[in-house]
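Q: Second attempt. The first request was missing the SMILES, so the protein and flavin mononucleotide are both included now.
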Amino acid sequence: MSKMLIIYDSKTGNTEKMASAIAKGVKKVKGIEVEVKKADRTNLTDLIEANGIIMGSPTYYGQMSAKLKKLIDKSVDVHGKLIGKVGAAFTSSGGIASGAETTLLSILKAMLVHGMIIEGRSETEHYGAAAIGAPNKDELESCNDLGERAAKLVTRLASLTE
Ligand SMILES: Cc1cc2nc3c(=O)[nH]c(=O)nc-3n(C[C@H](O)[C@H](O)[C@H](O)COP(=O)(O)O)c2cc1C
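A: Got both inputs this time. The predicted holo structure:
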């Protein structure tokens, strides 16, 4: 069975709500289990054991929060062991065009440095799921979609190596 790990940081609960909605989307796909963990409670073994890793952070000064960055910086100890895993990103920001996309890209760039596989989206929200403050209905649906698409990609890739 493949595994999706959703890692998030959240101070006031907005990004946490997104993480739960993404987990719901993952659960729509058969053959994949999902675990949701806070960034400061995630260890390097968790990263290695996952087939897909979805990371979320509040937008802090146009980039990910220090807690998520700390985990990413620690991940240098497993550099080379995350190659080929599926990655995706999500964020909650305080406003429109105030750093959400740059935050998503700050996470995706680290994933690319690890050699992970990122699937874009041709409709809206090309870089990942984003919400302004607490996620509304549409934003929760887009979180669901992100989880489902990432899970489908994990299972597609797993079928290639079976
Ligand atoms: C230190 C700090 C920096 C922030 N920087 C930004 C920012 O650059 N752009 C923005 O839109 N919102 C910014 N915000 C607002 C948060 O991104 C927003 O409130 C978010 O919904 C919080 O998510 P959380 O409930 O998961 O903690 C900042 C908040 C804090 C505490």
